[in-house]
Design goal:
This is ParB/Sulfiredoxin domain-containing protein. This protein is α/β, with parallel strands linked by helices. It has helices spanning 10-23, 48-51, 56-59, 65-78, 110-118, 134-147, 154-167, 178-185, 189-207, 213-222, 231-238, 243-262, 271-281, 285-309, 313-318, and strands at residues 24-25, 35-39, 44-45, 85-92, 99-108, 125-129. It has two domains: 5-152, Alpha-Beta Complex (Conserved hypothetical protein from pyrococcus furiosus pfu- 392566-001, ParB domain), CATH 3.90.1530.10; 159-242 and 306-318, no CATH class.
């Protein structure tokens, strides 16, 4: 089942991960050496709910066009790129439920595969077959992108950390340490700590352990299952954003979607040309737009810093043993 990137929640990922573990086919590994297979780019499928750590344009598109074009140039000049990382899943007949074949799915290398297809490269390419479980493959998709390739945006790091915060919660504590999540996703220590406190506040209120005001707000506005909401939504409730603030965010998301579908050229146009076009369009708007853009950029930078610098003694107590 295909999922729109902007609609993927931790709940969707958890269900997909359970299915993936059951259908996963692992390679035969000899002496711990990587296993490589030759596959045609067009035959490799995507499972965005499992293996896509980036959500360009708030999930309105799956790829960065400029990066794909850069890779196409590299293919034309030098040939094959680094091998994408893939996994193999059994496929089943939708009527009988019996295994009827298999499929290859990309874990890391979405942009490389898109570049091969744009370059009209239809021959087999070398791919590394991931040898671990599906959860490890999911983590590898984040880790490999954090270490190299196209950088992951801050908001995407937050969503990756939020998904793992919920996946590893067992009702009492976490199966992974806070530092493991920080290291894997690149999300700040303070942000992951806050995510864990949010889960505890919500859980304690719902179970009657502690009728705290924050837990009540989270439960009242988000319901009994936090996994059906992205961190951006949950954090908005935590911050108690006003209806006006939420309305502005929703309006911005709607406008971003319209720009993505009607004016995709903005992503590839020279910024100076875009700036001049806006000046010609409405020069009175430009100073206001510049001030608002600077404030938005500063707000994004301050988000993690505020959580890190504002870590309270209660936060440390909440995370002991994590």
């Amino acid at each position: 089942m295909k999922h729109q990137l902007s609609k993927i929640t931790p709940y969707v990922t958890a269900k997909a991960l359970q299915e993936a573990e059951a259908r996963l086919v692992k390679p035969e590994v000899i002496d711990g050496r990587p296993v490589y297979v030759n596959l045609k780019p067009q035959d490799i499928k995507q499972r965005l709910e499992l293996f896509q750590p980036r959500r360009p344009g708030y999930g309105l598109r799956t790829l960065d066009t400029n990066h794909v074009n850069t890779l196409v140039t590299r293919i034309n000049r030098k040939g094959e790129l680094d091998p994408p990382l893939v996994v193999k899943f059994e496929t089943t007949n939708q009527y009988t439920g019996k295994v009827d074949g298999h499929e290859w799915v990309v874990v890391d290398g979405h942009h490389r595969l898109a570049a091969y297809q744009k370059a009209k490269h239809t021959g087999p390419i070398s791919c590394q077959w991931f040898a671990g479980p599906a959860r490890a493959a999911m983590d590898a998709s984040v880790h490999r992108n954090e270490k190299a390739h196209l950088p992951i945006e801050q908001g995407d790091k937050h969503e990756a950390a939020w998904t793992r915060t919920l996946l590893d919660w067992d009702g009492k504590g976490w199966r992974s340490s806070k530092q493991m999540v920080v290291k894997l996703t690149g999300c700040s220590d303070g942000t992951v700590a806050m995510m864990r406190r949010v889960v505890k506040w919500h859980h304690n209120y719902m179970t009657g352990v502690d009728k705290n005001p924050m837990g009540e707000r989270l439960f009242t506005r988000l319901g009994s299952d936090l996994s059906v909401h992205p961190w951006s939504k949950v954090n908005g409730v935590r911050l108690d954003l006003s209806p006006e603030q939420e309305s502005k965010h929703d309006a911005a998301a709607k406008l971003a979607k319209q720009l993505n579908s009607r004016m995709p050229i903005l992503r590839t146009t020279d910024p100076e040309v875009t700036a001049r076009a806006l000046w010609l369009y409405d020069r009175d708007l430009c100073p206001k737009l510049l001030a608002a853009l600077q404030a938005q950029m500063q707000s994004g930078e301050d988000d993690d810093e505020g959580l890190d610098n504002g870590e309270s003694p209660l936060a440390a107590a909440d995370d002991m043993g994590a």
